[in-house]
Amino acid sequence: MKKIVNYIFAYPKIPSYAEISFKLFHIESDRVMLLLLALQWVVATFITSIKYDTYYYGFFSGALVVLPLLYLYKYLKGEKYYRYFIAVAMMLFSVIFIQQYLGRIEMHFHVFIGMAILTLYKDVVPLIIAAATTIMHHLIFNYLQLYEVSLFDMPVMVFNYGCGFDIVILHAVFVIIELFVLGYMVRLQIEHTININSSQNQVNELNKELEHISLHDTLTDLPNRLNLNQKIKTVMSNAEKNSNKFAIIFLDLDHFKNVNDTLGHDIGDALLQTVANILKNSVSEDTLISRIGGDEFIMVVSDFNDQNELIPTINNLLNSFRKDLFIKGYSLRLSASIGVSIYPDDSQSIKDLMKYADIAMYKAKGDGRDNFSFFTQELNKKIHNEVDIVNDMQRAFYDNEFKLYYQPKIDIKSKKIIGAEALLRWHHKQKGTIGPNLFIPLAENTGFILNLGKFVIQNSTQAIKKFNSLGYKNLNISINVSTRQFQNSNLYQDLKESIDDNKIDPVQLGIEITESVMLKYVDNALIVLNEIKKLGVSIHIDDFGTGYSSLSYLKKFPIDTLKIDKSFVDDIIGKDESGRLLVNTILSMGKSLNLKTVAEGVETKEQYEFLRDNGCNIIQGYYFAKPMCEDDFIALLKEDKIYS
After folding, report:
1. What is the pTM of this model?
2. How many CB atoms within 10 Å of residue 91?
3. Hey, is 46 helix, strand or coil?
4. First-residue to last-residue Cα distance in the chain
5. pLDDT tens across 537-546, in order?
6. Which terminus of the chain is more exposed, N or C, with fewer CB under 10 A?
7. How far, in whole angstroms, is CA 281 from its chain's centroid?
């Protein structure tokens, strides 16, 4: 029996996630019960009043049951004690008012209905109270009938209690059995409701997780771009309301790709997680931090009056990356480039502010990285001009607006032209000449330099073929090879195909590359340069002295010529001996390694005489001739001048 009782009445504990659901359900159930009690009150009042002329008894006794519950609803709705009061009231109506008009069997039927209705609460205690109320009522009124006690000046027999205690006990047994049955039904209801709530809770938790994932970066757990766009609207709304400013700080890690390429993406990911923690510790708690992709982060700083107030925060960020970071056994040192745009000074559009901060960040990278830049309209105008140039470059390429110009190279011994450097020029049909210092870096950044590089190779070899046909077969034409071209294109194949197509001697062609290109891609550079050297093309180191200028790489690579940078040639004239000493050192280095030396940017007689007297082999510069178109260069060759 004990096991049966425990099985029926051992209800599962309501879990925390289901408490609110049960609470709301109980409040709604209280309302239903109150409506039912009010209806019973009205029905019982009219029945007693019409049938038995006991209107006052029915009305006031019903009021004693219903009105307190109506009053307490405001304070106890949804509470367990309120359910207990409801249970008592429900049984009083069933056993008193119903029996007054009907009989014991009908009354018992209504008792069962009342208890069944109480299962709506999914709580067994109201059932137990209802059963106890019913049994106690029968015992008390049967006792009053036995001793002929009157209530309200009426004998108890009026209430139709003409039965013995044996019937009362039998009735009590029925009520207890019904209690067990209904109690088991309540248990099933509770379990079912908990299961439903459990499933709903799992769905809610999953939805929360999905929402979090959709709004946060999975690697760093920082807000992502979507989250940033949502939160920044709130920041802007507050700024508009309070006439405040806020800044968008765009941070990009410098050379982060090298970490992924050399150490692997697992180290790169761990580094990004460390960066996220650095950002959190470097700014105030109310600063919005977001990772929008790759190694790009955005911070939103509010409540300041002048952009200078942001500088300590920005410097703190930059300094945080100048320390050694220990990532999975590796000691890494990073730097960052930062761009800043300010609302409402720069724009009142979130989209524009993000774009402007990005523009300012690239300005910081262009200034040498590990730096910051504020957005300005001048910078915006410059960027738009560059974008226009980039967009127009491809059209200009197919409209043949790019041409090769040639700057003569003079042999110091023979004092005659022995070759030229082929230089790319852009003659825009509307804007006129666009300098290479403007379009070459843009072509390099966009990758269009690969098209231009191939164009230079093809046109320079065609020019050599033309020079040969005119009898100038000993000229050497050198072309510049960019970093992107050297790294990403099949330079050897392009040179070989163009040489073969035009049937020229490879010795007549030279390539000029900078020190940084070779040292940045040492292994690849060594392979490519050796192949080009075997082809017969000469190799010139351009801007020599501005990079590492190491003897070790001069011995390692198949180099023919050192080109002394113009900045060193400029220093020949002046009181400072260091400039002349440096040029002399380069000339001596070239001589000791059996390399030819070319001085570019020679503009004065003094510079020429110094270079001549100190053993420079070849001179190039405005002192002799500026870069010129092909026809003018041919005309100059025909003059067969002697330069001194």
Report:
1. 0.58
2. 26
3. helix
4. 126
5. 999 988 776 6
6. N
7. 19
Are 402 and 426 spatial neighbours (Cβ–Cβ below 8 Å)?
Answer: yes
CB 387 within 8 A of CB 378: no
Q: Does domain 225-375 have CATH number 1.10.10.10?
A: no
Question: Beta strand pairing status for 432-434 and 417-428?
Answer: antiparallel
Lookup: tokens for 476: 């050497």
Check the CA dihedral 496-501-502-504 and report its sign: positive
The answer to whether domain 225-375 and domain 387-639 are alike in fold is no
Encoded amino acid at 36, one letter: L
Strand 561-564 to strand 538-544: parallel, antiparallel, or no bridges (unpaired)? parallel
Rg (CA), the chain: 48
Query: What is the overall mean pLDDT for the chain?
Result: 82
Helix (H/G/I), strand (E/B), else coil: 373: strand
Whether the predicted pLDDT of 160 surpasses 70: no
Return the H-helix or E-strand segment holding 407.
Answer: strand 402-411
Residue (of 294, 290, 298, 400) closest to 340 by Cα position: 298
- The band of 161, judged by pLDDT with boundaries at 50, 70 and 90, is very low
SS3 per residue for 449-461:
HHHHHHHHHHHHH
Contact 246, 301 (CB under 8 A): yes
Beta-sheet pairing, 402-411 with 324-327: unpaired
Q: Which residue has the tokens 């990911």?
A: 269
Domain boundaries, the chain: 2-199, 225-375, 387-639
Q: Is the distance from CB of 453 to CB of 481 less than 8 angstroms?
A: yes
Structure token digits, residue 188: 């099933």
